[in-house]
Design goal:
142 residues, alpha+beta, Aminopeptidase, five-stranded mixed β-sheet, 33% helix, globular
C-alpha cells in the first residue's frame, strides 16, 4: 500500500534513509520533527505488511516569481529486494496525484544522479525528460 508517511513511521524511515543516504545523515528526532512540522515536504511511503519498503520525498518549492508551486521529487528509494515490482512508479504517481489535488502547479521537477540510468529509465516512462537545466550544488564546510 502506498500512503503519506506519519510519525509512526519514524523508526522505519530512519532505517531506510540509512540504507539510501548512509548512516548519520539525520536522526530519528529530526525525522519525527520533519514529519510533524515541515510543511514544505510531502513524504510518501510504500508499506508491505506493516514494513516500509520505500519512500519518496517531494519538496514543495514556492517562489513569489510564480503563481504555482513547483514540486520537486528529491528522494526515491526502494529496498533492493522490492525493486522491479513497480513500487517506485506507484509512489511517484501517488505523489503527483496528491500534490495535484492539494496545490496549484503546472509541472513537476525531479532530481536524480547522472549515472543512475535505471532510475532515469523509470522516470522517463513516467514522462520526465531532461529539461537541459544544470543543477549545481555547493558543500558548506562545518
Amino acid at each position: 500500500m502506498v500512503r503519506i508517511a506519519n510519525v509512526n513511521d519514524v523508526e522505519q524511515l530512519n532505517i531506510l534513509n540509512n540504507e539510501f543516504n548512509g548512516e548519520g545523515e539525520t536522526s530519528i528526532d529530526n525525522i519525527r520533527e520533519s514529519l510533524i512540522n515541515n510543511k514544505q515536504e510531502v513524504v510518501i511511503v510504500a508499506d508491505e505488511d506493516d514494513m516500509l519498503v520505500g519512500f519518496v520525498c517531494v519538496q514543495l518549492k514556492k517562489s513569489f516569481c510564480y503563481d504555482d508551486y513547483m514540486p520537486e521529487i528529491t528522494e526515491v528509494y526502494v529496498k533492493p529486494a522490492y525493486r522491479k515490482k513497480g513500487i517506485a512508479r506507484e509512489m511517484i504517481i501517488f505523489a503527483e496525484t496528491y500534490c495535484s489535488e492539494k496545490y496549484p502547479l503546472h509541472k513537476y521537477e525531479l532530481l536524480t544522479g547522472q549515472e543512475n540510468l535505471v532510475a532515469q529509465s523509470v522516470y522517463s516512462k513516467l514522462g520526465y525528460a531532461d529539461d537541459k537545466e544544470l543543477h549545481l550544488s555547493k558543500r558548506v564546510k562545518k
